[in-house]
Design brief:
By secondary structure, the protein is an alpha+beta fold. It is built from 4 helices and 12 strands; from the N terminus they run ββαααββββαββββββ. It has a 6-stranded antiparallel β-sheet, covered by helices on one side. The longest helix has 17 residues. InterPro entries: HotDog_dom_sf, PAAI_dom, Thioestr_dom.
């Protein structure tokens, strides 16, 4: 996010890519995190797909599903499904952080909904674990549909950290 004339605005996609390193999705740790996330019952129920993982970053996609619609009159996906996507993606980013996190749990997650997701379109979340201490990891996440220039939601979270022995 950047502030212009007192208003927060999302970083353009090109800026986000320049700030973060490319993800290495081939390492063993990333593959374990991917398998763990894909085995979680709520991730399976929502149809969540891990598309990128590694180096403290994760990208997850939730295909449009009429069963997840919160308002049948508009076809917009329920906010709870979006929050579950963002929370899961944030946890995956923490678990694949280079400091070798063994497990995590959400302590706090603030989600700001910017607009309704476009009915019929998948929602994708990119989460980055940008700082980690001995006991807490800090994550930023952005959810978007086909219009990646305007986020559906942005989130900041704190997650527990359990280091591997």
């Amino acid at each position: 996010m950047r502030v212009i004339a007192g208003q927060c605005q999302p970083l353009p996609r090109s800026d986000v890519r320049r700030i973060h390193k490319p993800m290495d999705t081939t390492d063993e740790k990333s593959q374990r995190v991917r398998a763990f996330m894909e085995a979680l019952p709520h991730c399976r129920a929502l149809g969540l797909e891990m598309t990128e993982i590694g180096g403290g970053q994760a990208v997850m996609r939730m295909p449009y599903n009429p069963a997840l619609v919160g308002d049948p009159a508009t076809g917009v996906v329920a906010g709870g499904a979006v929050s579950a996507l963002m929370d899961s993606c944030g946890g995956a980013a923490v678990m694949c952080h280079p400091k070798a996190v063994a497990s995590t749990a959400t302590l706090d997650l603030r989600i700001d909904y910017m607009r309704a997701a476009t009915p019929g379109q998948a929602i994708t979340t990119r989460a980055v674990c940008h700082h980690i201490t001995r006991s807490v990891a800090f994550v930023r996440a952005e959810a978007f549909d086909d219009d990646a220039s305007t986020p559906v939601a942005v989130a900041n979270g704190a997650f527990t950290v359990e280091m591997q022995s």
